[in-house]
Amino acid sequence: MLKAARQTRHIRAQLVTDSPLRQADPRVCLALSLLASLAIMLPMSRLLLFVAFYAVLLGWGKLLPMALRQLWRLKWALLFLFILDWLVVSLELALLVTLRMTLLAGAFAFLVNTTTPGELRLVLQWLRVPHRYAFALSLAFQSIHLLEGEWRAIQEAQQARGAWQPRQWQGWRALPGQLRELLALTVPAIVLTTRRAWALTEAAHARGFDAPHRRPYHRLHMSRSDWLLLITVTLVTAVIAIPFP
Amino acid sequence: MSLLSATNLSYHYPQNGRGIPPTNLTVAPGEALLISGPSGCGKSTLARCLTGFIPHLYHGEMRGAVMLDGLVTAVTPLWQLSEKAGLLFQNPAAQMLTETVEDEILFGLENLGLARAAMQRRLEETLQQFGLDSLRQRDPHTLSGGEQQRLALAAVMARRPPLLVLDEPFSMLDTAAAAALVADLQALVAGGTAVIIAEHRAEYVHSLPGLRHMALGNGHIASAMPDAWPFAATDPLELVVEGLRVERNGRTILHDLSFTASGGQIIALVGRNGVGKTTLLRALTGLQTFNGRIHVNNNTPDFGLVFQNPDLQLFNASVRAEILYRLPQPDLAYYRTLLAALGLTAYEETPPLLLSEGEKNRLALAVILMRRPRHGILLDEPSLGQDAAHKAMLLRLMRRIAQTGQLLLMATHDLALAAQADRLLLLGPDGFVADGPPAAVLADPIPWQRIGLRVPNWIHASSPGVEEVPRAAQAATAPGY
């Protein structure tokens, strides 16, 4: 049932609909993301190998262009981390930390682009997370894509009243003014986010949220190809991670 | 036997002491009740008291008792009350909890604890009943406002509560979507569901059979409008828009739009949701990149834009700080005039976030007016969720500013307000489909039909002047209130 819905539903733009990984059971998607998140503990040489393997996996899943776009957005943060670690500690650590952050960002992008918030909720419930927490988490996940639009709307509204201007760094003397401008953006952002969260809470309660006799409609189903994918990726990761004599 | 009864019910919010005075009411199965009154009079608060949201989700001082189908709301869990009374909110987009239309309806059915086969049956029946079958796999966030409101109604009614309470359900809908919602409500009442509608736009629901009225509050705004706006008339100005074309995300929003407009006028811009009204306003203020040319007397336009949602702009600690923010040498006499004209004098030191929605809208307007844009003011849905008193005040203010030779352009769904403008521009997906004096444009149904809108009959029945728009608060109140 869930499988059919995953194939036919009108998917939000951020999902990569033609990815074979998008067709996988959401538990597989979550497991593969977690696997990559754990792999950041590997030492440099093995980490490089795993990143290459993960890139191949994303490439097969038609997710590589999207993952690269996400990383491009993070370029300044990654560059800052790299330079800081290089100057303060060493070039090797700088490379290692940057590679770890890149992998984490890739794993997150993988999850966001293959799994809907509703599917995430089903997985969390399967993991025995209480429904109210699973629901809250999936709603937060669902709201991520709304934040960008709201932030832009606030910027425009403040620009229209002269309380904020898009501008570059103007030096330390201008910092207090720029911080004040940031306040003009963050206060409305907090207000809007709180209001949206409250509106969703009320809407959920209007439809019986927290009823003790709740019965879920959708069921998860692992197909043979799901098992095959999960086992293959786990085995390859194990080969990369475990130091054989 | 009443389905719902409230006895000496009163409530006050802890933050600002606002709320509802002692109220009594009863509703029988299959009855329709309209609770009308101005913005901030407590309609939404009463709706939440009647459905048990107060006191379960809101802290504050509640007195009296509400009995819902034999249950005392104050001591019955909210999930149990939601099986007896469904509550539909003002903003349809803010009620969407899942990623497909199907899942939206299933959310409430899962909470009823039904067997899977029963859920499937109810789902199909509900999709058919509300005409949502063709949209079943759509993401609710991609639906129009009217479709979202219908889905929210379907999701609540799939649980088959004997009572439905609607909190200002028409405020964000265009006339076509509002008419569709009224038809749905008529069908529900005919089917035996009791319906309570908290709404100040009472004109929409007069067609409900056996409708009773209950009025709350008086809606007076303590506004002192000056006889003439403090600034002298500007030179005659002419706005010229030539070949305006806006594309966003690969979609053309505005197609080669051209028009001219003279100062001293109030112009209403009307069209369906998503047709590009807000985009046009953003282009006129330079917030939106575009192809084409926009100028005022061959200069770059300088318009102030008042946004639909005041919460996007308000962040200071007081009304005074908000209005005077970043003005090095503010004209304090003008500031006082603005406060008085907009009925904000009493709130000068109040934090903006504690104001009512109507007061916040007036404050956002004051913020823009204080900046004194040279060519005029653009307003995006200025009457959204606002009552007749607010609209009347807004219209008086716009007239005063127009007298100085400035241009006022408002994008609106509110045809009662649009009818008071000097000119009405009707915008369709391919450009303007009508342009002229509001009376003439409203009298011709053909362009409205072309873009899927309709002019309700009550527009023709009401005489010019927003003050004359029928107000349910003044209508006959049923005995017993």
Characterization of the model:
The complex is a heterodimer of chains A (245) and B (481). Chain A has 245 residues and is mainly alpha-helical. Chain A has helices spanning 2-8, 26-39, 44-60, 64-73, 75-88, 91-114, 117-126, 131-160, 175-206, 224-241. In chain A, helix 7 packs antiparallel against helix 8. The longest helix of chain A is centred in the C-terminal third of the chain and has 32 residues, at 175-206. The termini of chain A are far apart. Residues 1-13 of chain A have low confidence and may be disordered. With 481 residues, chain B is of the alpha/beta class. Chain B is 31% helix and 23% strand. Chain B is built from 16 helices and 18 strands. Chain B has helices spanning 43-51, 53-56, 78-81, 101-112, 116-129, 145-157, 175-190, 277-284, 319-324, 332-341, 357-370, 388-403, 415-418, 438-443, 445-450, 457-461, and strands at 4-12, 19-27, 32-36, 61-68, 71-72, 85-88, 163-167, 194-198, 211-215, 238-248, 251-262, 266-271, 291-296, 303-306, 376-380, 407-411, 423-428, 431-436. Chain B has a six-stranded mixed β-sheet, sandwiched between helices. Chain B has a five-stranded parallel β-sheet with strand order 6-7-8-3-9, sandwiched between helices. In chain B, strand 15 (376-380), helix 12 and strand 16 form a beta-alpha-beta unit. The longest helix of chain B is centred in the middle third of the chain and has 16 residues, at 175-190. Chain B starts with a strand and ends in a 20-residue tail after the last helix. At the A-B interface, helix 8 and helix 9 of A face helix 3, strand 6, helix 4, helix 5 and helix 6 of B.
